[in-house]
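Internal ticket #5521
Category: modeling
Description: The requester needs a full-assembly model to guide mutagenesis choices. All entity lines are attached below as received. Residue total reported by intake: 404.
Assigned to: D.W.
Attached entities:
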Amino acid sequence: MRISVLATRTEVSVGTIKFYLREGLLPPGRQTSRTTAEYDESHVERIRLVRALTDAGGLGIAAVRRIIAVIDAPDPQRLDVLATAQDALTGRVDPEPDDSAASVGRAHSWVAARGWPTGPGDRVVERLERAWEACEQAGVHVEDSMMDDYADAVEQVARVDVAAVPPGADDAVRRVVVGTVMLEPVLSALRLLAQRAISVQG
Amino acid sequence: MRISVLATRTEVSVGTIKFYLREGLLPPGRQTSRTTAEYDESHVERIRLVRALTDAGGLGIAAVRRIIAVIDAPDPQRLDVLATAQDALTGRVDPEPDDSAASVGRAHSWVAARGWPTGPGDRVVERLERAWEACEQAGVHVEDSMMDDYADAVEQVARVDVAAVPPGADDAVRRVVVGTVMLEPVLSALRLLAQRAISVQG
DNA sequence: CTTGACTAGAAAGTGGTACTTTCTAAGCGT
DNA sequence: ACGCTTAGAAAGTACCACTTTCTAGTCAAG
């Protein structure tokens, strides 16, 4: 199909599609002449993926590019689908020098105590560290025990996440990444609803 | 204290503080002359709150303004702290006309079936509706039963949330709002870590 | 075979957000 | 009295996600 058809089918303007092509979010079509290219269903799907990640997922172009790179990678080491996916999800953060010695590595030691697998330079743990620290700064104190309570609950969430991925599937990476991103707003809304439900009836 | 001291204490530039004053995120100081005003600890705290919500919470100025308005409101109807807080958190969304009749009100009926309190025009349910629909569009199918599984887990999260709020506290609204926003990145990181832990050892 | 719609590709422009800079007129402080 | 600071307003900046405008070429109907 031509670019105008692609635009109609995806409800994305031709200009935006060209922008995605330039940005490498969308592979070029098969060129049939110097001014015409042929696009197919894979392009439709890709555009829908980009829109889903940017609109609902709230991701920026850079994050989407990383995710797409992972999805497009030919048969990655299946062993570490999750690590790969999570690497794409956690953008690199420049390691700011810690100013308070009191809470250095608090997240890391909590994760270790919890028995969850991690290693040095774990970007997800770094994220947790920052988020936890930010809570403290904002006056929302979270003790280790409370974190454990949250962890118990979130393990349940993760169990559902993992169960939803068909093991050994061809597009496991895609499902993990897209599912992780797209379900976040769902879980967020559920949390608000659950807060209500809990507080209404003890 | 003067504005320069406020800037030093909060590590926020004088220019930015003036910007916050203009935007109504920060109440003006007590003016001591036409070119000098006196700020106090409440200003320090307020600025830290704004930074926490924008930096870690990822909120925009508009959302922060809504939240601040709620926090500043004098003794709101204590009955509905949560509703007020959640209203501030869910920015207004223009109700887009639904195009597919198939899934209209899917979230609403699921919430009703779940027995969670809601009503017509519930913004949180609308959010869930959108997020759920976006998942389907992106090829991440979520059946009602899976949503129930997530809901069970998230109820646990909410229990911890609710337990952390001292009942009848003076600043309950503040704690609920700030806690809800600031803990989101924490929970997000926990989810990734839990996914790993679960998938590694069944 | 012409005419109008479409296309690729690149460059420049736009609107929104969150500040930052620059300005003036006026204290303040040593 | 001289430089440092301030309030307040206006204009400017950087970044992001597009959108517009351009050229040069192609295609399809009449």
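Resolution: model delivered.
Comment from assignee: Residues 13, 15-16, 19, 23, 33-36, 54, 60-61 of chain A lie near DNA strand D (CB under 10 Å from a C1').
Ticket closed.
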